[in-house]
Amino acid sequence: MSNEQTFIAVKPDGVQRGLIGPIITRFEQRGYKLAAIKLITPSKEHLEKHYADLSDKPFFKGLITYMGSGPVCAMVWEGRDVVKTGRVILGATNPLASQPGTIRGDYAIDVGRNVCHGSDAVESAKKEIALWFKPEELVSYKQAQHDWIY
Ligand code: RTP
After folding, report:
1. Whose CA is nearest to atom 1 of ligand 1?
2. Given 46, 50, 117, 146, which residue is catalytic?
3. Model-level ipTM above the cut of 0.85
């Protein structure tokens, strides 16, 4: 599936810490293609939709406050198996369990400040992309270097 897409976000802590660049670099250098990007401070209602499946968790309220505390860098990345591989690039949800070499394993310590988000399945990626982006914000283009990757 060379045109699989995933939703990746640099969370407010990652934006404040200047980690947008390093996170983009990891996806670019792996061979994935950026299909959409924007900075947005999400509303409470937007985040409650995004995290609807976690609404009964004790950390839900704090999570919504944290995610709405400043700009988020919302992105769509495209390429073969990008949903699963994107989660590997991010590392485990709890940074203390993340391997060195992953984003969270290199940049984070606390599960409540874990720098980035990535869709956990192809179906949730579709829903999240539709929630965060208008169809016209997604850009389709050919990258010459991809002929050397696939
Ligand atoms: P994400 O959606 O942010 O990529 O994270 P995930 O799939 O790896 O993990 P999920 O279980 O969906 O949790 C979403 C976010 O909630 C925060 N969290 N806090 N015990 C806690 O305090 C706790 N557990 C999860 C994290 O920011 C996690 O990324």
Report:
1. 117
2. 117
3. yes
